[in-house]
């Protein structure tokens, strides 16, 4: 683990919602943060302006392998203590029989395939003893899937978890901490206005978990309190 003031993080998908607050919270805690967005300006730019060089911005469309490769090349020579893949989408609450093939493909590519492509493309930037984390959800837990609804989103997060387990097995010897994080139900565009949590409450708890787990090898699926989420 690097000295506290010298820690570096890359957060993918930080234009709004949980990713925006995550990038800002890490910078507030003295991490050097690179945060990605797909657009110019907005709240992430305002956050970068307020953090005086502690938070810098990169651009990437996570579903583009070419853009992931280009980002890796732009960051060549950097050393990360944390790679956090946050980006995902939700396309509403349709029963699976009403989901179009295009919608199924879009959500699976964005929420399951692309995060693992990003992790594979960028993992060499992460120092031994560093952390590779991906934003999952309790909705990806198969054993906790006891309420109707959100079939496609749940399936994509379950696929993400499974792919991360395969990744963890493949790279078991790399000395990196591997985490799937369930941030709880938050008021964001994805989480909706009636969610119980504000990202400003839940993300500091998530960062506590990231900091507490740093240096612990192997893969864990943890909630914002650091409790294990059952697969
Ligand atoms: N909110 C919840 O209650 C909740 C609960 C459990 C898990 N999660 C997970 O937490 C993460 C963040 O969710 P959120 O609630 O903060 O959602 P959000 O407000 O909708 O934000 C999603 C973020 O992902 C980015 N993104 C989406 N597709 C992308 C792509 N193809 N390439 C690059 N960036 C992309 C968005 O960028 P643009 O602004 O460019 O679209 C945005 O920054 C997701 O993984 C979500 O599944 C959320």
Second-tier CATH architecture: 3-Layer(aba) Sandwich
- Tell me the CATH superfamily: NAD(P)-binding Rossmann-like Domain
| Broad CATH class | Alpha Beta
Helix count from the secondary structure assignment:
6
Number of domains: 1
Q: What percentage of residues falls in helices of 4 or more residues?
A: 25-40%
Give the class from helix and strand content and strand pairing. Answer: alpha/beta
The largest sheet is:
7 strands, parallel
- How many DSSP-defined strands? 7
CATH T-level topology: Rossmann fold
Order of helix and strand elements from N to C terminus:
EHEHEHEHEHEHE
Bound molecules: NADP nicotinamide-adenine-dinucleotide phosphate
Rg result: 17 Å
Note poorly predicted spans.
none
Beta strand %:
15-25%
Q: Enumerate the strands of the largest sheet in spatial order, edge to edge or round the barrel.
A: 3-2-1-4-5-6-7
Shape: globular
Mean pLDDT: 97
